[in-house]
Amino acid sequence: MRRNLVALTLLGALAGCTSGGVAAPPARPAPAPADPSAAASADRALTGDTQAICDQAARTGAGFGEMFIDDLQLRVDSAAQGDQAKAQAQQKITRDVQNYSVALADMAALTTDAALKQALSRMSKEVTALKGDVTKIDSSKLADLAAMLDRACGKS
Q1: What is the 3-state secondary structure (H, E, C) of 39-89?
Q2: Do residues 134 and 2 make contact, with C-beta atoms less than 8 angstroms apart?
Q3: Average pLDDT for consecutive 10-residue bins of the chain (156 residues)?
Q4: What 3-state class would DSSP assign to 28?
């Protein structure tokens, strides 16, 4: 449980760092548009817009931080409900982590700013490496990535 609290703190710090040092207001990430052409249009609107991509990264990080809190609670709650509940909880956590990694990679693909692309790509790879296992979080590496993203977004 202590490692989960450390991970939660780090993810909260990451979300806070990407929004100028103050955690973004609670908000769930907007659902993806159902129409693929609408999603493509939204992607085109962000392409090359460093500030918009930085803002999106901050919102996505904050949303993931909140979801992560919910997932930790789900993990704790499912532990008392048996193996099937634990397996379902882990599947959800793994899916949430994977979705966050894909979102980071997608934002990296949209930016034309080399520093932002590198920061988002590295974050995506680090999150992918977790495979839903928060005990794998390396706090110093995560702090370095958050600082890299802040620099790329002009926040430090």
Answers
A1: HHHHHHHHCCCHHHHHHHHHHHHHHHHHHHHHHHHHHHHHHCCCHHHHHHH
A2: no
A3: 44 44 38 46 74 92 86 88 92 90 94 94 89 72 82 87
A4: coil
